[in-house]
Amino acid sequence: MNKNKKLFIIIGVIFLIIMLLIGIDISTRTTFPGSKGNLKERMAPSDTLETHGEKQNRHQ
Question: Which H/E stretch holds residue 55?
């Protein structure tokens, strides 16, 4: 194996290790969307999210 090929393999392995560490770091800081409970904002129908003033103006 010549010098250039060894250098390429070493740099490639270092790059893969760095990418793996970044992926692990990101995954530990975030949560899976399905693990959050049901938030009121997601459960409420769109009509209940309107303000009281908007409902009055629309029905008049």
Answer: helix 52-59
Q: What is the DSSP string of 17-56?
A: HHHHHHHHHHHHHS--GGGS---HHHHS-GGGGS-HHHHH
Q: pTM for the full model?
A: 0.53
CB 2 within 8 A of CB 10: no
In angstroms, the CA 17 to CA 24 distance is 11
Q: How confident is the model over 5-60, as pLDDT tens digits?
A: 999 999 999 999 999 999 999 989 887 777 766 666 666 565 555 555 555 555 55
Largest CA distance in the chain: 83
Q: In angstroms, rounded to a whole number, what is the distance separating the alpha carbons of residues 45 and 40?
A: 10
